[in-house]
Structures are given as structure tokens and as C-alpha cells.
Write a structure and sequence with these properties.
This protein has 115 residues and is mainly alpha-helical. It contains 5 helices and no strands.
Length: 115
Amino acid sequence: MFVAYAVVTILAAAAAFAATGFDIVKAEQVHETMRGYGLPRWTLNPLAILKALGGLGLLIGLAYPPLGLTAALCLVLYFLGAEITIVRAKLYADIAYPMPYLLLSAGSLALFAYA
């Protein structure tokens, strides 16, 4: 079962890094989207850093499990917060965007118990 946990965790970390990269490369587009959600412009960098640290924590957690558990839980909460933010802004067309990240993080968290 460790192999499944490792694969899902590596995919979740890669997804978190990809989301962070998108925030950096497409910053103006992301700022525009975040403005639609009612978030101030300054929040992009701290949120991108949190995603990157979550991905790093997942990878380090393969060697030090308490950190992996914490990172997975924090990423689940982060992406749940993203979903709630989208719902509060009533921009339902965007609700699918955070879902793959949320599911991968939740998968890592769920499989942790069996690893």
C-alpha cells in the first residue's frame, strides 16, 4: 500500500508545484480571477508560497511521515478553502478548477493511514 501512497503523494506534490508555477507565470490572469473572488491582489504570493510549501512537505513526508501527514491535511484545507471562496463569490463555473488538487491531496491524506 506504500506504493499507492507514494504515487498519489508525488502526484499531489507535482500538482501543488504546477499550481504554484501557474500562479507565477500567469500572475496577471490569476490576479484577475482572484479579484472576481473578492480577494485582494497582495494575497497571490502568500497563497502560492503555501502551495509550494505543501508540495515540498508532501515530498519530505515520504521520508518523515509526520510532515507528510501535516502537509496533506494543510493542502486539503487550502483547497477546501478555495472551493468555499469560489462558492461564496457565486462563480460556479470555476468550481472544478481546485477539485483535482483537492482530490489528490485528500488521496494522499487517506492513503497515509495505510502506508
